[in-house]
Amino acid sequence: MPPLHPKTMNDEGGAKAKPRKPKPATLSNSHALFNSTIRKPCLKQILFTFLLVLALYALFNAFFNPTLDTASSIFLSAGDTSVTYPAVKVYLYDLPTRFTYGVINHHSLARGGSRSAGDKSPLKYPGHQHMSEWYLFSDLTRPESERVGSPVVRVSNPEDAELFFVPFFSSLSLIVNPVRPAGSVPEKPPVYSDEENQEALVEWLERQEYWKKNNGRDHVFVASDPNAMYRVIDRVKNSVLLVSDFGRVRPDQGSLVKDIVVPYSHRIRTYPGGVSVDKRKTLLFFMGNRYRKEGGKIRDTLFQILENEKDVVVKHGAQSRESRRAASQGMHTSKFCLHPAGDTPSACRLFDAIVSLCIPVIVSDSIELPFEDTIDYRKIAVFVETASAIKPGYLVSKLRTFTSDRILEYQKELKEVKRYFEYDELDGAVNEIWRQVSKKLPLIKLMINRDKRLVKKEPDCSCICVNQTVLR
Questions:
Q1: Residues 107 and 232 in one domain
Q2: Which residues form the Exostosin GT47 domain (predicted)?
Q3: Contacts for 58 with CB less than 8 Å, ≥ 6 apart
Q4: Are residues 57 and 149 in the same domain?
Q5: pLDDT digits (tens, 9 = 90+) for 161-189
Q6: Are residues 312 and 396 in the same domain?
Q7: Does 102 share its domain with 251?
Q8: pLDDT tens digits for 195-207?
Q9: The pTM is what?
Q10: Which long-range contacts (CB under 8 A, 24 or more apart) does 320-328 make?
Q11: Which of 25, 271, 286, 305 holds its CA 20 to 30 A away from the CA of 46?
Q12: Domain count of the chain?
């Protein structure tokens, strides 16, 4: 059979067609060009290497050059030591002794203590529920090598300081003179005057160069007792105040915007055990003063409602060693611990409950709580509005609905966060307070710069002092 050759359009008759040279192929799109290129082994290798380098570069950037948002979230995470940030520089005022150890000495003398003029032994700060002033002061006086994880560093030159700490023992000063029974007449007037010491402190500060420089805005005071520094608070209200709540502070004197809520010093033993329901036989426990003023009047009503309920223990008790021992035993063996308002919205009992792993039941509509940017209190406490709590049977019925598993969940959360309320923990309350202080620095700088350019000063600080804490 003759070979078959397809004829072209130019074939004529039986003449043999002349072979035509193929034209160079021309691709009309980039996809075809890419396909033809990668057929060559050398180009394949180059492309693979390029893509690998690109992927490694992206991975490196993600881990070692985080975005601003990522860095901010790490900074706001309390206790995170994986990323280091510049510590805020704090200058500790070397106050005259009358405002620090002199207060401790007077407290001792008022209770029968004696101390010779030449006695150089250290004075011991007495235990009470507002000891944050002592812990912060003693923290700054320790060597930097012992201040592990602290967000602030002490500087010796005030020119280098960003903040100035005033270590006046304002809460201890308030209780130097023992409380006298109502109607009693003192044998002689007290030697010590808290009001005079407050006035003397502010007069001393107002003569200092660095107070006058920024009108005290970059200064920090501890006033954790609700009545601390009440005589002079209008003269220091520009400063950062460390308070237990705002119950005795006017909106133009303090607020969450510029000030910091700090925990009370718990007065009972920390619970040494783990989470458990079986070992906690009491449903609800409370031990404290039954009769209080202002918002604390609810206590008497709650006593009347709860004192005959099954598995509920409510006792009247004042601050004493025996009362603390009984309270420790009660809180350590109860599932829930009642926290009604006292003379002000907060009280030491809340923090006693937290370190006891006893779930706080908070009946205080205007309460402000420490470290709420770090701690979600809904996970560790039960909140009950006052109007509901005083309905007979409501509170106990609500608590009985909690299953054992739910109670254990609360206890696990309490165990996780209780270090924030321990002042002697390595990375506990002291470091967290300093973190909160350091976060105020941008606002402080803003207000300082704003003050310098304003022609007319506002008569009050309403632009930053908005204190609306009551539930609506």
A1: yes
A2: 87-398
A3: none
A4: no
A5: 999 999 999 999 999 988 655 555 666 77
A6: yes
A7: yes
A8: 999 999 999 999 9
A9: 0.79
A10: 323/287, 324/267, 324/268, 326/287, 327/267, 327/268, 327/287, 327/352, 328/268, 328/269, 328/356
A11: 25
A12: 3
Given CA atoms 384, 387, 388, 389 in this order, what sign does their dihedral have?
A: positive
Which amino acid belongs to residue 97?
A: T
Q: Does residue 450 lie in a domain region?
A: no
For residue 70, being part of any structural domain is answered with no
Report the alpha-carbon distance of residue 30 to residue 199 in Å, rounded: 84
Same domain, yes or no: 240 and 289:
no
How buried is 395 (Cβ within 10 angstroms: 0-12 exposed, 13-18 middle, 19+ buried)? buried
Let me know if residue 435 belongs to a domain. no
Whether residue 218 is found in the same domain as residue 327: no
pLDDT at 402 over 50: yes
**Angle ∠(293,298,302) on CA atoms, nearest 5:** 140
Give mean pLDDT, residues 406-430: 97
Residue type for position 30: S
Number of H helices, E strands in the chain: 17, 11
Q: Helix crossing, 348-355 with 321-332: angle to 10°?
A: 50
**DSSP 3-state of 456:** coil
Residue 399 and residue 407: Cα distance in Å, rounded? 10
- Give the CATH number of the domain where residue 413 resides: 3.40.50.2000
Q: Where are the beta strands (DSSP E) in 176-244?
A: 219-222, 240-243
Q: Which two tokens stand for residue 95?
A: 């106050």
The answer to whether residues 352 and 286 belong to one domain is yes
Q: Which residue in the block uniquely carries the two structure tokens 């006058």?
A: 212
Q: What is the CA radius of gyration of the chain?
A: 35
Each residue's pLDDT tens digit, 142-164: 999 999 899 999 999 999 999 99
Rounded CA separation 2/290 (Å): 122
- State mean pLDDT over 360-387: 97
Integer Cα distance of 372 and 170 in angstroms? 25
In a domain, 1, yes or no: no
* Cα distance between residue 448 and residue 466, in whole Å: 19
**What six digits make up the tokens of 123?**
């004075």
Taking the C-alpha atoms of residue 130 and residue 317, their distance in angstroms, rounded to an integer, is 19
| 80 within 8 A of 74, measured Cβ to Cβ | yes
Residues 6+ apart with CB under 8 A from 41: none
Token couple for 409: 């969940």
Q: Determine the structural domain holding residue 49 and report its residue range.
A: 33-65
